[in-house]
Amino acid sequence: MKTLEIEWKHFDKDGNTCIRCSDTGDALVDVVEKLSEECKPCGWKIIFKETKLTEQEISDSNNILFNGKPIEEVLPGAKASESHCLSCCELIGNPSVTCRTVEFEGQSYEGIPSSLIRRAVCEIAQCC
């Protein structure tokens, strides 16, 4: 059986994260369980890993890795970017924090939706 490790990296401060990361986390919870069942007959085992980051590592927050590769390297034409994140600014107490975003097919995503996560898994597993 082949293994696909999906790692979610996100900023965590005392058990709290920003709205973007929270939205990404909710999408992951929703889609990983479904994909685990869908991909099993094709010989894939999906493992979910959550990595909580400190304030010093915030530039890598809201990142999903598929067997170590970020989503923008898995989805053809996607790219990582960043924009001002008011939610992180409030958590950290710094008015100029930027967070990671993903641009794909002409749209910018602050929280990574389940549809993009599904597409990335399908690119790798070829069974969705």
Stretches with pLDDT under 50, minimum 5 residues: none
**Order of SSEs:** EHEEEHEHEEH
Beta-strand share of residues = 25-35%
Return the structural class.
alpha+beta
Overall structural domain count: 1
| Helical residues, percent | 25-40%
What does the radius of gyration come to? 15 Å
Helical region count?
4
Please give a structural write-up:
The chain is an alpha+beta fold and 128 residues long. The strands form two sheets. The protein has a four-stranded mixed beta sheet with strand order 2-1-3-4. The protein starts with a strand and ends with a helix. The protein has one domain (2-125). It is globular and about 50 Å long. It contains four helices and seven strands, in the order E-H-E-E-E-H-E-H-E-E-H. The mean pLDDT is 94. Helix 1 packs parallel to helix 4. 34% of the residues lie in helices and 33% in strands.
Note the main attributes of this structure:
4 helices, single chain, four-stranded mixed beta sheet, 128 residues, three-stranded antiparallel beta sheet, alpha+beta, globular
Please give a quick description of this structure.
This protein has 128 residues and is α+β, with helices and mostly antiparallel strands. The protein has one domain.
Give the helices and strands, then pairings:
Blueprint: E1 2-11, H1 19-39, E2 44-53, E3 63-66, E4 69-70, H2 71-74, E5 79-84, H3 86-92, E6 98-104, E7 107-109, H4 114-125
Parallel strand pairs: 1-2
Antiparallel strand pairs: 1-3, 3-4, 5-6, 6-7
Helix pairs in contact: 1-4
